[in-house]
Amino acid sequence: MEIDTGDNQVQVRSVWMVTREYDKLAGAGGVKDVCRQLAEALAVYGGCKVRVVLPRYGFMDPVGLGFSLTDVGGRNGRIGGRRYAHTFDVDMHYVGEERREAVAIWQAEINGVLIFLVEADRFATKRAVYTYTEEDEQEVAWQRRGGGHFDYFAMNILLQKAALDLMILLGEQADVVHCHDGHAAILPAVMREVGGYRHFFRRSGALVTIHNAGQGYHQEVSDLAFARAITGLPTRVITRGRLGESFDPFIVAADYAILNTVSEQYGRELQQTAEDSRTGWLGHALLGRGVTLAGVTNGIDPASFDTTAPETLGLTAGYNVARGDFAGKEECKRALLATIAASGPWERVRQYGVLDVTPERPLGTFIGRLTSQKGVDILIQALHALLSNDPSLQFLFLGSGAFEFEEALQQLSASDLGQGRVCFLKGYDAILANKVYASGDFFVIPSRYEPCGLTDYIAQLFGNLPIVHRVGGLVKVLDGETGFTYSENTPEQLAEALAGALRLYRHHPHALRTMRMAAVERIWHLHTWEKVMESYLHLYRQAMIQAREQ
After folding, report:
1. Which residues, at least 6 apart from 6, have a Cβ–Cβ distance to it below 8 Å?
2. Are 357 and 436 in contact (CB under 8 A)?
């Protein structure tokens, strides 16, 4: 259902977020940053009471993170072999088996946001947010590293039901429940259709944010009987909530919530172009139900990437991009090149290849998941051409992902073409990422599709000009003004865009300085969360009006 209203008289006071990620606590991608920064903006600037619910994964130390157990729940219970003074049970029925799972709740207030962690056997055994780790694979052979958890759907349902139960136990009827991605998208239907919830939440609105609509991100399930049993939803809702032959959280949410994507352009691509084929035609299916996806381009908190405070970011020296002071940036580049030349030491990454220590040579950079979506294969092919034609270019990769891309980068760094000019730091470390951002001259984002993109913002704040495929949320990079863009995502076009950037680097360094300054100015003018928050408040008001009309 699409609702268009200019009624600003509706006041949003209480927002609950349900998410699998939250920055500083648990994360795997950009969702963690969006959740934390939006939540804090709503609390600080929006005057909202903000609550966030996410799992307590096995890799999290709640006490060390400042959390304490709540007294929510009416009885003693045992979870993971430990006795908890206050627990409550969540209905988690299987087909032909009525069952419940015990949960306890941790809580802490962080930067004005009250955060709840759900303690449960199902979450406590997980060493990563979404996938099995190398340690998991060593313990159980079928738990392949990088593969999704076998009980992903049950994990999602447990989180969503526990969040609703927690609100009831606390007596807090949210104005809006903000559900992040497919992991939480079934909640609006459960809130409206399941008897234990629908009366309590009759005036609560729901917003579902689609952070990534790509196939593999829907969190769908093909076993409809299982979906019916564990969600508690009526058969008619399960049947109507299908995309193809599977029960799809985003499709089922369409009847009960406002839906948005994380950039205007991505929303248009999903509903107006053949790019939607990458989603299994989710966008067009929603459009067929009369749902037009709202687009709100993600914001960024510039203060989190303040290069004038180098000690906070782990940088060698400080510098001021907005004022065009880059002396410290050169020091950062020189220091990282020296560390790479010495092969570390590294704590969380493994180094393949080395780079020349000459800071005057242009340095291209890539930070992210090594996947097909991120266009890593396109970048590798483009580099083969560029390294042959431009003897000065060096390139640094930081990340991990698909085995074939990790192998390709290892081979490139050791090849005659890449030796001494391509370095691959396999793995990830947040402080090291800051060093790479600060050291790079250009930051390449060759994504095949990109719902929004946060790394382009971050690179700009570090004075590292993005070179992006003009798609999805990356259209916020303005060619020749705040970075470089190209339209056809081919190795040839990417190589041409890189070559153009290198020409400016050599012959017109003042132009690059102007672009770097303009990029930061544009972020402060348009893309801070204080400004983006207003668009979400508008969607929250729509959701509240929708709830009252249903």
Report:
1. none
2. no
pLDDT digits (tens, 9 = 90+) for 410-465: 999 999 999 999 999 999 898 999 999 999 999 999 999 999 989 999 999 999 99
Measuring CA to CA, how many Å separate 114 from each of 16, 68, 266, 539? 10, 12, 31, 22
Q: Could you tell me if 216 and 373 are in contact, meaning their C-beta atoms sit under 8 angstroms apart?
A: no
Exposed e or buried b per residue across 223-254, where buried means at least 16 C-beta atoms within 10 angstroms of its C-beta: ebebbbbbbbbeeebbebbbbeebbbbbbbbb
Are 459 and 440 spatial neighbours (Cβ–Cβ below 8 Å)? yes
- Euclidean distance between CA atoms 266 and 390, whole angstroms: 34
pLDDT at 3: 43
Q: What are phi and psi of 358, to 5 degrees?
A: -75, 110
Per DSSP, the residues of 264-297 read HHHHHHHHHSGGGGGGTSHHHHHHHTT-PPEE--
Integer Cα distance of 486 and 47 in angstroms: 41
Q: What is the DSSP letter of 94?
A: B
Handedness of CA 395, 147, 237, 116 (dihedral sign): negative
**What number is the average pLDDT over the span 360-382?**
95
For residue 504, the surrounding DSSP H or E stretch is helix 491-507
222's tokens: 């093909």
Tokens (6 digits) for 463: 């004075």
Distance between CA atoms of 37 and 300, rounded to whole angstroms? 7
